[in-house]
Amino acid sequence: MGHELMGLKRPTILQIIPELATGGAELSAIEVAAAVVRAGGRAIVLSEGGRMADRLAAVGGELVIFPAATKNPMKLLANATAIERIARKENVDLIHARSRAPAWSALIAARRAKLPFVTTYHGIYNEKGRAKRLYNSVMARGDIVIANSRYTADIVKKRYATPEERIRVIYRGVDLDAFDPAVVSAERVKNLRDKWGVTDEQRIVLHAARLTKWKGQGDVIAAAARIRDKVRDCVFILAGDAQGRDDYRQGLLDQIASAGLEGIVRLVGHVDDIPAAFAASHIAFVASNEPEAFGRAAAEAQAMACPVISTNIGAPPETVLAPPRVAASDRTGWLVAPSDIDNYESVLLEALSLDDAARAEIGARARSHVIEMFSTFKMQRLTLAVYDELLKTSMQLTFARGN
User: Fold this and answer.
1) CB of 207 within 8 A of CB of 185?
2) Contact 182/154 with Cβ under 8 angstroms?
3) Averaged over 198-223, what is the pLDDT?
4) What kind and span of H or E run contains 333?
5) Rounded CA separation 200/190 (Å)
6) Which of 150, 168, 205, 266 is the most buried (most CB within 10 A)?
């Protein structure tokens, strides 16, 4: 395929992902495509397309419309042949898969074409039964497996006995240009507060997550009921789309009504301007009662200098600095046991009792922590370093020089 001539030609990286609609894996694919192009390479993405396709084009990536979302076994084999054909025609040097079904096709194509194969393990897939375990295992079959947190990396090792030397922990990147308090205008913040019916005197506890049981909205409502008589100027905003889970949404509304919390807890639906949402808030609350593989909300809130309360399972303990891992004077937020409403109540009361100076100090530390550890630039650079390792190229250096 010609990567032995790599010093003389543009490296061509092919990523495959089912759709470019919305979500962390899709955004990472576009961000890495941007990095490849900036490093002098060529970035091809095989996908069924979607609303983020324009963003891929804007960064110089090439979208090839491809039936990458299919899970039909016969179609997966046909896709493998099609990917191999595309790889040979386009002089692809490396294939990077970000989702299980297309990863099977990509693995077969990469082996046939003798190309390096990289996977990114984006989520903690459930493993009910041997068939599901086999299906998931493709994500651990890369020549290098990228895990989006140490927590995810340890799961890959435990489940598939993948050796540590084949795993690279590369945290999800936060867009520090968008998630920057300095660029979010007072007008954007006021627009959101007005839309939510929040007065100037009221402080917001923000829970930003799609409406689904494991994200813990019900626990947040229970905690709100505990503190409403103790902190009178506080409203809880549950921001997120039901994505068709209308029964769950109705159950939350019923819980709010039966606790007499109308006006105190508000379901506001999908929010487009998430940086402004965090800027408008006094505290962000990540109440997931199942482990997050990375936990974007906790990182984005901290980038906006908004202190975070997060459950202490999955990856958030890697992103939120809190005792006992750090001294209380170094905290960027609080870690709490999942679904422990007593714990939620005491930590909420502590966080809401901070004066402005103490809260600002935590927020400034939180932003510095994200800038150092979780920038999009760092995620891009480390991903290019994986490609360089397999291709003997120096894209990472070219990319870093251009920054």
Assistant:
1) no
2) no
3) 97
4) strand 333-336
5) 9
6) 205
Q: What is the DSSP string of 4-62?
A: GGGGGS--EEEEE-S-SSSSHHHHHHHHHHHHHHHTT-EEEEEE---TTHHHHHHTT-E
pLDDT at 101 over 60: yes
Burial of 74: CB neighbours in 10 Å, binned 0-12, 13-18, 19+ = exposed
Percent of the chain with pLDDT over 90: 86
pLDDT in tens, 295-313: 889 999 999 999 999 999 9
- pTM (2 decimals)? 0.89
The 3-state DSSP class for residue 267 equals: strand
Q: Note whether 207 and 238 are within 8 A (CB).
A: yes
- Mean local confidence (pLDDT), 242-254: 95
Q: Residue 8 — pLDDT band, cuts 50, 70, 90?
A: very low
How high is the mean pLDDT of the chain? 94
Give the confidence band of 7 by pLDDT, cuts at 50, 70, 90: low
How many helices (H) and strands (E) the chain has is answered by: 16, 13
Cα diameter, the chain: 70
Q: Please give the helix or strand (H or E) that residue 77 lies within, else none.
A: helix 73-89
Cα–Cα distance between 347 and 294 in angstroms, integer? 22
Other Cβ atoms closer than 10 A to 36? 28
Is pLDDT of 71 > 50?
A: yes
- The residue type of 230 is K
Q: Are 97 and 16 in contact (CB under 8 A)?
A: yes
* Helices 217-227 and 246-258, axial angle in degrees (round to 10): 10
The partner residues of 309 in beta bridges, in order of sequence, read 285, 334
Q: Token pair 């100090």 is at which residue? A: 361
